[in-house]
Automatic annotation (TrEMBL):
The chain crosses the membrane at residues 16-35, 42-64, 102-123, 190-210, 237-258, 270-298, 310-329. It comes from Roseibium aquae. Belongs to the binding-protein-dependent transport system permease family. LivHM subfamily. PANTHER family: ABC TRANSPORTER ATP-BINDING PROTEIN, BRANCHED-CHAIN AMINO ACID TRANSPORT SYSTEM PERMEASE PROTEIN LIVH. Pfam families: BPD_transp_2. It is found in: Cell membrane. GO terms for cellular component: plasma membrane. Keywords: Amino-acid transport, Cell membrane, Membrane, Transmembrane, Transmembrane helix, Transport. This is Branched-chain amino acid ABC transporter permease. It is a multi-pass membrane protein. GO terms for biological process: amino acid transport.
Length: 343
């Protein structure tokens, strides 16, 4: 039982990333009808927002520390971060320690600006083009963004520390009545799962309970009719593209302590996230979230040693096998709208 619970936790962790990326993909497809293969690059750019802010926070200069000497008795030169010098040791180190969560404040406007520039500068010209054209141009854009990041940050992963308050593991065994230390799980992965729930809830609440969101949902169902009412639905959809970029960016920011950011991390999630969107149903926001967590848990269980011993390599293909079965039985996906992907 403890192994099962641990795999469910692992699945929720993976499913959180899948669900957040798939949610943004579905927002774009549902509003603009665009298959955005650059969405994984937005996830990657969000992660590098955290990398950049951490690098800025840790900028330092050398000062002479008379309390420390080398073997000749000369005072040592030590690196002191500017933040420590400006705000004091306690406050400065605390800001550096919390650089990943603080990156959210930077990532929101940066990702909104990137999303708006991407939609207005490129994607709007492909609204009425075939999906194949959209895939090609957005995939090309993703490669360009990858190479730009590689040029400035290098090809090697850049480790990002979680705040000290969330370093270590939480004892789930005691919480659930098991023996102590039987189910241990990293604190930050739990934080990421809770964070994803907050973002998902915020997006759904925005779409359901705000006038802006209600108009967007109406436009997703019937864009022409909403346009006839004198509403500039195109402008609202552009804003939704920016919101989708923010969601992907925030997912990337908070994922940095789990997997060290590198220029290729967006592609690693992109294909799987598209499978999640297709399984959940193209254009269905609840379907994207449901499929994200469901496939994350399935992948986690398929990664168990006992399962791999029986079916070697099943953890590499389980998501695709599920997608094949779902699409054979229900071409629109689990919660897809009628007529979408059924032609």
């Amino acid at each position: 039982m403890d192994a099962i619970i641990l795999q469910i936790l692992n699945g929720l962790d993976k499913g959180s990333a899948y669900a957040l990326i798939a949610l943004g993909l579905t927002l774009i497809f549902g509003t603009l009808g665009v298959v955005n293969f650059a969405h994984g690059a937005l996830f990657m750019l969000g992660a590098f927002c955290a990398v950049t802010l951490n690098a800025l926070f840790t900028l330092s200069h050398q000062v002479i520390d008379p309390s420390r000497t080398d073997f000749l008795g000369n005072p040592l030169r030590v690196e002191i971060p500017y933040l420590v010098e400006w705000f004091g040791e306690a406050t400065g180190n605390a800001i550096i320690d919390w650089s990943v969560p603080l990156s959210i404040l930077i990532a929101i406007p940066v990702m909104a600006a990137i999303g708006l520039a991407m939609e207005r500068g490129l994607i709007k010209h492909f609204y009425k083009r075939p999906h194949a054209d959209q895939i090609l141009v957005t995939f090309g854009l993703a490669i360009v963004l990858q190479q730009v990041v590689k040029y400035f940050y290098g090809a090697n992963p850049i480790p990002m520390p979680a705040p000290d308050a969330f370093v270590g593991t939480y004892d789930f065994g005691v919480l659930l009545g098991f023996d102590p230390f039987s189910i241990m799980y990293p604190y930050w992965r739990l934080v990421y799962f809770l964070f994803s729930l907050v973002i998902i809830a915020a997006v759904f609440a925005f779409l359901r309970y705000t006038t802006f969101g209600m108009v967007v949902r109406a436009g997703m169902a019937d864009r022409e009719t909403v346009g006839l009412l004198g509403i500039n639905i195109g402008r609202r959809f552009t804003i939704m593209f920016a919101i989708a970029a923010i969601v992907a960016g925030l997912a990337g920011v908070m994922y940095t302590p789990i997997v060290a950011p590198n220029y290729n991390m967006g592609m690693n999630f992109l294909v799987l996230s598209f499978v999640v969107v297709v399984v959940g149903g193209m254009g269905s926001l609840p379907g994207a979230v449901l499929a994200g967590f469901m496939l994350g848990i399935l992948e986690s269980f398929a990664s168990m040693a006992a399962v791999i011993d029986i079916v070697p390599g099943i953890n590499q293909v389980i998501i695709y096998l599920v997608a094949i079965v779902v699409l054979l039985v229900r071409p629109r996906g689990l919660m897809g709208r009628k007529g979408v992907m059924e032609d």
